[in-house]
Design a protein that fits this description.
With 278 residues, the chain is of the alpha/beta class. The chain is built from 10 helices and 11 strands.
């Protein structure tokens, strides 16, 4: 009798196991808003990271996510979203991840998880014919500076103004925030601000695009930082999928060609260890 019961159970076991694996697969897919698709929030106004070209998203971040998605058998879709709305949109499950050259900061890590994929920093940009050409942050005190809203370098600028300008008896930095980086550049061109602080790659893109009307005045990279994809803390499967795709994509010739194409620098293992330790 026991043998018969065991036989019936063993016949059902493969079916039960198959149903269990199927349930796990369905659950995993359910972590993404749409099965087979990585939906990313991107501020597609930040060339060369993300911008529109021929009515389609283009740029380093777009190509990077496409490579990651392909590595895990998925497709990437980028939803154009202004930068200050990216984390709220992620938390509200409008998209699975943020893909918008977002700097990894302690404050952001309190509310979301982040997956590093790039190392960068900031530069100062001014008009070519301007007599004001600041090379270091100390030279920003008392001047009108434009930058994009919601960025970590905006917060850094505010902190610097209080701690290194006002606290030392110097005039505060007059900071103007703009919804997009191109609007900050337009403010510089119209002389509404005297200088702009932006990501180093964006700064170089602006110089190239405007054919020398603006110049980069800071020699050294300001505030080196890692850039990462943002993921919700309650979606470990999404994070694991992106990490697995990044690891697999990083071993391909296409990955190396992508960094070479944009003259960018991937984070080293030591960079990532220091981030984890912090």
């Amino acid at each position: 009798m026991q043998s018969a019961r065991f036989l019936r159970f063993t016949r059902k076991a493969p079916v039960l196991l198959g149903m269990s694996l199927c349930a796990i697969a369905v659950s995993a897919k359910a972590d993404f808003i749409k099965p087979g698709i990585i939906t990313a929030g991107s501020d597609i106004t930040f060339s060369p990271y993300e911008y529109m070209q021929n009515d389609k998203p283009a740029g380093f971040d777009i190509e990077m996510l496409n490579g990651i998605a392909k590595a895990v058998g998925m497709k990437a879709v980028n939803v154009d979203t202004r930068f200050p709305n990216l984390i709220p949109g992620l938390q509200g499950k409008r998209f699975d991840i943020t893909n918008s050259s977002m700097y990894i900061t302690p404050d952001r890590l309190k509310v979301i998880d982040m997956i590093p994929y790039l190392k960068t920093g900031e530069k100062i940009v001014t008009l070519k014919d301007s007599s004001y050409k600041p090379g270091v942050p100390d030279e920003l005190c008392g001047h009108k500076i434009g930058t994009m809203a919601g960025t970590s370098f905006l917060q850094g600028l505010m902190t610097f103004s209080q701690q290194s300008c006002v606290a030392k008896g110097k005039p505060a930095i007059s900071i103007s925030e703009y919804p997009t980086d191109p609007q900050a550049t337009q403010a510089l061109l119209s002389k509404a601000v005297e200088a702009q602080i932006t990501d180093v790659a964006v700064a170089q893109s602006v110089v190239d695009r405007l054919k020398g009307r603006v110049v980069i005045t800071s020699d050294k990279l300001l505030y080196p930082v890692l850039v990462g994809f943002g993921v919700r803390k309650d979606d470990p499967h999404v994070k694991q999928t992106i990490e697995a795709g990044l690891k697999k994509f990083s071993q391909t010739p296409q990955y190396k060609a992508l960094f070479s194409k944009y003259h960018f620098t991937p984070p080293t293992a030591d960079d990532i260890r220091q981030l984890s330790a912090g």
